[in-house]
Structure formats: C-alpha cells, structure tokens
Amino acid sequence: xxxxxxxxxxxxxxxxxxxxxxxxxxxxxxxxxxxxxxxxxxxxxxxxxxxxxxxxxxxxxxxxxxxxxxxxxxxxxxxxxxxxxxxxxxxxxxxxxxxxxxxxxxxxxxxxxxxxxxxxxxxxxxxxxxxxxxxxxxxxxxxxxxxxxxxxxxxxxxxxxxxxxxxxxxxxxxxxxxxxxxxxxxxxxxxxxxxxxxxxxxxxxxxxxxxxxxxxxxxxxxxxxxxx
Length: 228
Prior knowledge:
This protein is mainly α. Helices cover about 60% and strands about 10% of the residues. The chain has 10 helices and 5 strands; from the N terminus they run ααααββααβαααββα. The chain has helices spanning about 15-20, 25-35, 40-55, 65-85, 120-130, 130-140, 150-155, 160-165, 170-190, 205-225; strands spanning about 85-90, 95, 145, 190-195, 200-205. The strands form 2 sheets. It has a 3-stranded antiparallel sheet with strand order 3-5-4. Strands 1-2 form a two-stranded antiparallel sheet.
C-alpha cells in the first residue's frame, strides 16, 4: 500500500486533520496499519504501538504493559482517525484506507513509514496550527529581530484569512495567542528564539532553510496540480 499521506476531501475540518498528523502517536498508528496488509485487532495494534514506544519486543509485553494504550486507542485515537476516513473497522479488525491524501496543506509531508523523523517534529507545531506556516514565513522575511507588535501588524495587514477565522481579526487577542502559544511552540523546535520579556523574535538559521523548503514544496504542488 502506498505510504504517501493522502487526506480525502470530506466533512472533517482540515485543522483537525492537521492536528492529528501533528500527534506522533497518531502517526505511529497510521504507519503500523499501512505496513500491515491485513486487518489488525485493537489488541494487536496496542501491542505493536507499545513495543514501538517502549522499544521492547512485542513478545516481551504483558497485558498490563499495553492495556493503557489499548484504552487510549479505543476512546481517543481510533475514533479521530475513523472520523477522517483514514481507517476503517472491518469484522476482522482495523485497516488503513486507500484515502490518505492531504491536499489542504502547502507542505510536502515526510514519509509516514517513519513517523518519528526529526522533520515530523519540526512540522508538528505547523500542522497543529497551519497558520504558523504564515508566521514562520513573515519572521523569515526579516533580516533582523522583530517585535511581537511588528509581527502582529504584519499578520493583521496580510491577506491571510486563517487568523481572522480563529481570532476574529482581533489584534490584542492575536498578540496574546502569539506570545503564549505560537511563538513558544516555534522556539521549542528550534526555528526561532523568542525573548518573552522583551517580546522580540529572532530567527534561527534552521527557519530560513525550513521556509525555503515549504516554498519549494508549495511550488512543486502547484505544478503538479496544473499538470493533473
């Protein structure tokens, strides 16, 4: 089965689907299912997932070892994946569907067969909130540090609509969200340095490389769409 991530058009909010891919456990679940040609029971999936996360052999695990993860699969992970149409429950067990294609993102996603690649970790905060892709691009356009106020002004005067949808176009609310949530997340993965006291943002070398990669991915996707 092709391991390229393909998200089907459907009723699920694209932000929800992005957030799922930002979750390393959900990526591991998809990778496990994609690498099994036959349906898996919840128990077998829980055993394989526990083995990956604890770096143990599946044969060494006891029921107590994987019971908590099996409950998390049942109550949280699998319902979300099923709602997107990425997995299906069959009488024999759970399978990944052929409908894994993510057309709402401008990013070329890493290989889902390796859900713990460092590039996934860098992408995670952008996938969790796709608007952060726009934040990263604006910061990368500055040759020097910029202030939180300057970033807020650049965002509210841009034609990017995601901020209006999530924050109602309210700049004070936007600045609070940037300060407490978005900028710390970008700093956490090494894309920026954020001085929360001075409220200044400095890009790290990896940010420019990352934004160039995003731009190249977007250009490649546009060419593909034109030729399709």
